[in-house]
Design a protein that fits this description.
The complex is a heterodimer of chains A (180) and B (515). Chain A is built from six helices and nine strands; from the N terminus they run ααββαββαβββαβαβ. Chain A is α/β, with parallel strands linked by helices and 180 residues long. Chain A has a seven-stranded mixed sheet with strand order 3-2-4-5-6-7-9. In chain B, 59% of the residues lie in helices and 17% in strands. Chain B has helices spanning 2-5, 9-64, 68-76, 148-179, 181-200, 214-318, 324-352, 363-380, 399-419, 472-483, and strands spanning 84-91, 96-101, 118-121, 124-133, 136-146, 359-362, 384-389, 394-397, 426-434, 437-444, 487-493, 496-504. The chains are: A alpha/beta (180), B alpha+beta (515).
Chain lengths: 180, 515
Amino acid sequence: MALLTTMTMRLLCGALLLLALTPAHAVPSEYDLKAAFIFQIAKFVEWPAGSAPPRLCVLGGNPFGAALEALRGKPSPSPERKMEVTLLDMGADIRECSMLFIASPAERHLERIVAISRGAGILTIGDTEGFAKRGAMVNFYLENGKVRFEINLDVARQGGLKISSKLLSLARIVDFQQDR
Amino acid sequence: MKLLDNIPIKRKLMLIGLVTNGVAVILLSITLGVGEWVSYRSRAMTTLAVHAGVIADNAAPALMFSDENAAREVLASLGKETSIVYAALHGKNGGIIAQFQLAGQRRQPPAMPASGEYLFFAGQLIYAKNVVHSGDTVGILYLQSDLSIVFWELLKKLLLIAAAMTLSLAVALFLFTRLQKAISGPVNKLVEAMTHVTQKNDYSVQVPVQSRDEFGLLAQGFNAMLAAIRDRETALGRYQAGLEDAVRQRTEELKQLNASLELRVQEEVAKNREKDHLLIQQSRFAALGEMIGNIAHQWRQPINALTILLANIKDAYEFNELSREYLDKSVKTGQTIIQRMSTTIDDFRNFFKPNKEKARFSVNEAVADALNILEAAFKSNNIAVSVEQDESVMAYGYRNEYSQVLINLLSNAKEAIQQRHVAQGQVRIAIANQAGRAVVAVEDNAGGIPPDVLPRVFDPYFTTKEKGTGIGLYMSKMIIEHNMDGSIKASNIEGGCKFVVTVVTEATEATQDKP
C-alpha cells in the first residue's frame, strides 16, 4: 500500500471510471473498439466545406450493439458538432450521411454504395476483408487480435475527403482493385 | 585587521590584492555556477518539454487507435536524444501502450509526476504530459532525462571558468607585484630615510621626490620637515652656546653681587648699629635735658631761698645785726637747703641710671617717682595731676626704664598742654591690675593727636614738637615691647589723648634674662 502513491491512485481511479462507463463489459469488445475508432477517425477526416453535422449511418444491421448508442451526441470532430447516429435499412438514401458503416450483411450492395458515396463526400467504412480494395475508404481488420484499419486513399481523395497523414501513418494503405 | 598590522606594506598590498581578487573570483565563480546551473536546469526542462510536445503530438493517433507499434515507433524517434533515458506512453485507462528505455540508466522514481509537472529524482528529470487530440486526452507521456550529462557539462564549464579565473588571478597578481612597487617603493624609501635619521641623527638626508601623488607630497613634506629640524638644530645649538655663556656670565655677576651684597649688609649693619648708638646717645641727651630741666625746676625754689638767705646775711651785716647766733642759724639753714639740692641730684642720677637686671617692682612707686621728678614742672604750668590706683600693682622688668617711659608720657602731656595753651590742664593717671597685667593709662585734655599723625607717633625721628627729637615715644615703645614684652598703645579720647602701657606682672620664660 505504501507504493500506492497519488499518481497510481489517480491512474487507478481513471481506469475504474472508464470501466464504470462501459456498462456490460469489463474488457472492451472488438465492436466497442471499432465504434470508438470510427469516432476517432472522424477527427482526422476533413469533409468538403458546408457539410452537415457528422452523421454516422450504419447499414446492414447493428454489429456495435450499445456502443453505437454511446457515440450519439458525442462532440466530433469539434466540440460544436454533435455526432448523429442513424441505423439505415437497405435501400435507404445514404446521401444524408457523412460516414457510412457498411456491415458485412450489406456486402452485396458495396459497389453501388461506393459509386453513390464517391461524389457525395461520404466516408465509407467497413470491417469485412477486401472491402477497401473494393472501394470502401476505411476498412477494419484484425491483426494479432488487435483492431487495425486500412485506407483506400485514392477513393477517399476522389470522394473529396482529406485524410490526415497522421491517420494514414497508422493505417495500411490499399489500392483500388476493381478487378479481383 | 590586526593580522595585517605587523607585516611589511609590500606583503600587505599583495595580501590585499590576493584576498580581494580571490574573493571576487570565488564570488563570481559561485554566481556563474549557480547561474549556469539554473539556466542548465531550465534549459533541460524546456528541452524535455519540447520533446514531450512533439512526441505527444505524434503519439496521439497511435494512442487513439491503441496502435502499440506506432506508439513504439514514435518513442523510438527519441533514440537520437542522448539525454533521454526513458519514455513511456500510457493509454487513457493507465495501461502502458509503449515504452522506450536505454538499458541500465533509468532510475525508477517512487511516483510519476502529474501532467505538465516536472520531477527531479536522483539526478534525473521526469516530465509528464497528457497526450491530447482535438481537446480529448487520449493518454499520457512520461519522459525521463538523465541530468548527469548536464552535470558533467556544467562541471566542465565551471572548471573552465575556474581555470580562466585562476589564470586571470595569477596574471593580476603578477601585475600587482609589479605595480605595488609604485606604492611600496616610495614608502620603503621613506622608511629607509627615516631609519637613517633616527639611528644616526643625521638630518642631512633627502628623500628623492619621484612622483606628484601623495607619496611625492609625503617625500616633500618629509624633506621639508628634515630641513626644519636641521634649522631648528643649528638654531638650538647656537642658543645653547649663547645660553651657556649667559649663564656663566650671570653666575659671575651674581657672585659679585653676592659679595657686594654681603659688604653692603655689613655696612648697613654697622650703619644701623651706629644709628642705634646715635639714637641711644640722643635719647640720653634728651633724658639729660629733661633731667636738667627738672633739676632747674626743683632747684628754682631753694636757689631763691639761698639768695634771700645770703641777702639777709648781708643786710644783717650792714645793720650790725649779724650776730654769731644769727650767722650760725643762717649757715645751718643754707646747709640744709644745699643738702636738699644735693639729694635732688642724687635722686635724678639714681633715676636715670639704667637697671642691670630685671626685677619685680611696684608700679605705684614708679609712678610716684616719676611724678615726684615732674612735680615742680606740672605745678609751674598749673596742671592738675590726679592718680587713680589699685593697691600695690606689681610689674616685672627694668624699673628705671619703665619710669623713664612714664616720664616721657607725662612730659609729652605737659608739653601738649603748654603748647596748646590749655587753661586748666589736666593729667589723669590710672594704675590697674588687669588680667594679670600691670596697666597704666595716661590721659590728658590737650585736644588729642590728629588722625593722620596717630599711626606714626611711635616712628623714630617723628615729631610734631618744635624742638622735639622724635626719639621719646620710639624709645618708649622699644623699652616696653622689646625689653619688657609689654605693649604701648596710643588713642584719642574725648578732649585729649590716651596712652596705655601694659607689662607683665611676673617673670615668665619669655621675659626672663632678656638683655
